[in-house]
Amino acid sequence: MRRASFPPTRRGSVILIVIWSIAIAAVVVGAAQVLAFRQAAMGRESIAKVEARWAARAGIEETIAVLEYHTEEPDATNARQLFRDLETVADGQLTSGDWQIRHVENGVEIKGPQDEHAKLNVNTVTQETLLELDAMTMDVADAIVDWRDTDDTPGMMGAEYDFYVNRDLGYEPRNGPFRSVQELELVAGAFPKYVRGEDQNLNGRLDPNENDGAASEPPDDADGFLDAGWSGVLTARSTGSLLGATGEPRLDLREGTPEDMQSRFGVTAEQATALAGFAKSQSAKLEMLLTQDLQTLSTGGANAPQRGANPQGSSKTNNPSSGRQSGRSSAGAGNQSGGNNRVQALDQQQLRRIFQEGSLTTAGAPLVGKVNLNTVPPAVLRALLPDDPISADAIVSLRSASSSGLLSISDLLGSNRITPQALSALSPVADTQSYVFTVTSRGRSAATGLEVEITAVVDRSTLPARILEYREQ
Ligand SMILES: [Ca+2]
Ligand SMILES: [Ca+2]
Ligand SMILES: [Ca+2]
Q1: What pLDDT digit, counting tens, does each position of 254-282 carry?
Q2: What's the 59 CA to ligand 2 centre distance in angstroms?
Q3: In the beta sheet, which residues pair with residue 442?
Q4: Pick from 359, 386, 415: which residue ends a domain?
Q5: How much distance in Å is there from the Cα of 404 to the middle of ligand 2?
Q6: What is the C-alpha separation between 34 and 26, in angstroms, rounded?
Q7: pLDDT above 70 covers what percent of the chain?
Q8: Phi-psi region of 7 (alpha: psi -120 to 50; beta: other; left: phi over 0)
């Protein structure tokens, strides 16, 4: 038997070719593997991102569902229920991930969305109240008012059209309402360090870069508390609502018949007629019922000047329905309010229902976003009542003493430590309802821990609730 054999040199070159082939194959396989791993990793990451994103989104949806439920089926006897229900959906889990909704109160993160009605509305806040804010100066307060007022006349130290144009800033003052708190940064002197404080991304949460001292932007004091600057106390989002505390459209005292008022407010026929008589006056405002008695108001007392601040102004006086009212009121007024019989004063329950279910609007006037007396931080309350800290503190103790919270601004009449002046100052800007919330929901993928955050500003003053702003990061 003869074994096939090659000459030594040929054998060597074959071995070399084989080794080379193996080497090349190894390189090719290796490269393919790296590519495959990279693609798989990318795939895993994008799956994780989708999981985290949908978890965050689920938190937003759950919150919207709670907000809409409370608009449709409000609990008029408990001002805290909405907030309790929001807290129960602040954490949630899906099979592929979970979410967390938090906001900051006194620098500390707590469960649930941010109530925009815990802040002052930058479109109605007075210059005096602005000056109570940290780091606010007279020139900036004036410039903020100039930015939103319709005229081109600068306040004492303010800034109007000429200021912005002369400095070639590329924009002019809006001369209309601020649309967001970010817009404040366009105002002369309102630098981001004041507007945002440490909350650089304006999500109402303390992010790692906002708590590391000078290591990264923004500068912060690394103390574990979020100082959100003016964005923590000012909002452009809060709004009023045409719906009352029971979910029915509010009854306008100028439109409703005495019979309507009797059934909605639980007042007597006599009181209803007096209310209609009071509402006839163009200068009548609902809050006058807090500080003056119905008898005085129904016999022309509404024309007396009112004490206290009135940031909305009362210049708009045209009312297209005045003809209808006078016809209606003359039908009811003949028998009672003209005579000398004193109209019975409104009791606390009646006042509460009038403030919960009634309105006294000027045609065309915008719905004012008011602070919610149940959620407004004590410091903001004191900014609204700078000369009257005793009343401010009395409001805080009154609300803490009640398990259901304050149900109407008229509940403040229950404390003799709250002065009538404080009531007059607060009544145009304070209420006991919240309609707009900023929901910052952080979703996390269960498999990889990757996080996606969604911030949505939700307005529940009408149904369906509207998303006013939506950001993802
Ligand atoms: Ca202006
Ligand atoms: Ca932040
Ligand atoms: Ca800090």
Answers
A1: 999 999 999 999 999 999 999 999 998 88
A2: 18
A3: 100, 453
A4: 359
A5: 32
A6: 12
A7: 89
A8: beta
User: Among 75-89, 230-244, 307-321, where is mean pLDDT lowest?
Assistant: 307-321
Residues 277, 175 share a domain: no
- Residue 4: predicted pLDDT: 57
Residues 211 and 166 in one domain: yes
Question: Same domain for 281 and 233?
Answer: no
- Claim to verify: residue 195 and residue 276 sit in the same structural domain: no
Domain of residue 219, CATH code:
1.10.40
What pLDDT shows up at residue 33?
Answer: 84
User: Is residue 470 in some structural domain?
Assistant: no
Q: How far is the CA of 228 from the centre of ligand 2 (A)?
A: 8
Q: Is 45 among the domain residues?
A: no
Assigned token pair, 120 = 């002052």
**354 closest CA partner among 413, 415, 425:** 413
Q: How many domains does the chain have?
A: 2
| Residue 80 tokens, joined | 């805290």
Expressed in angstroms and rounded, the spacing between residue 224 Cα and the centre of ligand 2 is: 12
Find the 207 Cα to ligand 2 centroid distance in Å. 5
Q: Is residue 152 part of a domain?
A: yes
* Lowest mean pLDDT segment, chosen from 20-24, 67-71, 99-103: 20-24
